[in-house]
Amino acid sequence: MLMFWPGGFGTELNLKGRARDLLTPASGEPSIIDHSDLYAVTGRARDVVRIESDPANTELQRLVGCRAGGNLRSAIAQELSSEYEAGTPLLLLIDDIAGATLISGFTYFRWADVVPGVRERLGSGPQSDMRGICSGFRDGSSALYPNGALRGVSSNTPMAPSLGDPADPLGWHELEDPPEIAMRRARRIDVWQNGDQLEFDTMFRDSCWIPGGHEVVLHEYEVVGTADAPSGVVRSVEAIPRVLPYPECPLAAPNAPRLIGTSLHDLRTEVLSQLRSVDCCTHLNDGLRALAEVPVLAGALRG
What we know:
Shape: globular
Largest sheet: 8 strands, antiparallel
Number of strands: 8
Helix content: 10-25%
Structural class: alpha+beta
Order of helices and strands: EEEEHHHHHEEEEHHH
Number of helices: 8
Strand order of the largest sheet: 4-3-2-1-5-6-7-8
């Protein structure tokens, strides 16, 4: 999911997403079994202004006017129930609108001394009490002042190594060159069957481009585990933090095994129910919710 602002700072956010299910057989050539592209525009209130997909889905227009966040995800489940139940690539993309609109503005903090007027506007906003929102913003966190206001934007943003592997050119679909000021969320969900269990290895990364054209990482998680193949119930799960903004953020990772015994199909709702407040990390929850797609991919293996 690429996030960018054709009109510049303070204008509508544009989102371009691409998702693909790729089957790699034991013998023969890999094949694409499903795919979707998404284009959306959101306003300053994170409301959906425009949305379309390829292949086209006219039901997407029911989301116009919805505000990204819990409101949008509820609307997706209600208005696009067939996509939701089928766990399609399009669902994965529209579900990511909420997270993308939430984190997209980070890139402008890195351009605040380059783009006129940005630093003044970023520093003029209200100071909210962030305590208790997540693991990184627990009471006493190094990220917060005693009153709960954010001390500043994290500088823990290492350079982003390439996701592509020259030895596996089909491992990632084509990624467009970004505009100068942009962010990107990239996901990978790998699933294979081993006897009576499914094994999965997933990751996601939020990155942005900074002055000089370098790509840096803001968030990155890997999640690995297993599930019972017949029932889809989680047998094991481990969250591995790679890059997170604040020292307290990784404290949420040990809570991922609470999901053992949960059906993969139910994770989009169960993660939000079981991992809350300082026990959660917004980005970890996002990675765990995406495990609901594992049974869909596993179905292709059986086919």
